[in-house]
Amino acid sequence: MAGLPGAARARSTSPGSPPALDGSFLLSPLGGLMGAQAVLGLLVWSLIAATTYHLHAAYGWVMFVSLFFWILTLLFFVTYLLQLHEKFYMIPWPLMLMIYNAVATVLYITAFVTCAAAVQPTSWRQWDYNRRAAASFFACVTMITYAVSTFFSFRAWKGLGSNAATSQVTDHA
């Protein structure tokens, strides 16, 4: 479980103890990427929501993808920030995060392409054009952050960069 916060220490929280904030999570690559995904995803769906997206079916897909993954990213962020993933130790969190980030990357690719293809410079409302173009840019950047998270999640799932002896001790403590 290398790369995940709390992976180097033994499980110190018991199932009955209250959740505690994990400050090291915010400084970890996973925490930083999740924070960036939350901010960028918020930008994407708020920029689309500020336009007349209901007149164009393509923007409905972009809105769905960005809002859906924004909510799920916030849930994962809070789960890791409050160390709730340690209370549910029977769930394979590294595998789950890897699958989640891979699916988010693929769907954000479709949302980015859809959003970019639907931007029309001859729009009768200039501010709609600007917001849609900005949403397209931020969808691309968000897609890249999910792809990087997929890479780090894959490394954490495979245990790359950790010592086999220490991972055996900390995983079963």
TrEMBL record:
<comment type="similarity">
    <text>Belongs to the MAL family.</text>
</comment>
<keyword id="KW-1133">Transmembrane helix</keyword>
<dbReference type="InterPro" id="IPR013295">
    <property type="entry name" value="MAL"/>
</dbReference>
<keyword id="KW-0812">Transmembrane</keyword>
<protein>
    <recommendedName>
        <fullName>Plasmolipin</fullName>
    </recommendedName>
</protein>
<feature type="domain" description="MARVEL">
    <location>
        <begin position="25"/>
        <end position="158"/>
    </location>
</feature>
<feature type="transmembrane region" description="Helical">
    <location>
        <begin position="95"/>
        <end position="121"/>
    </location>
</feature>
<dbReference type="InterPro" id="IPR050578">
    <property type="entry name" value="MARVEL-CKLF_proteins"/>
</dbReference>
<comment type="subunit">
    <text>Forms oligomers.</text>
</comment>
<feature type="transmembrane region" description="Helical">
    <location>
        <begin position="60"/>
        <end position="83"/>
    </location>
</feature>
<dbReference type="GO" id="GO:0019911">
    <property type="term" value="F:structural constituent of myelin sheath"/>
</dbReference>
<dbReference type="GO" id="GO:0043209">
    <property type="term" value="C:myelin sheath"/>
</dbReference>
<feature type="transmembrane region" description="Helical">
    <location>
        <begin position="133"/>
        <end position="154"/>
    </location>
</feature>
<dbReference type="InterPro" id="IPR008253">
    <property type="entry name" value="Marvel"/>
</dbReference>
<feature type="transmembrane region" description="Helical">
    <location>
        <begin position="25"/>
        <end position="48"/>
    </location>
</feature>
<keyword id="KW-0472">Membrane</keyword>
<dbReference type="GO" id="GO:0016324">
    <property type="term" value="C:apical plasma membrane"/>
</dbReference>
<dbReference type="Pfam" id="PF01284">
    <property type="entry name" value="MARVEL"/>
</dbReference>
<dbReference type="GO" id="GO:0042552">
    <property type="term" value="P:myelination"/>
</dbReference>
<keyword id="KW-1003">Cell membrane</keyword>
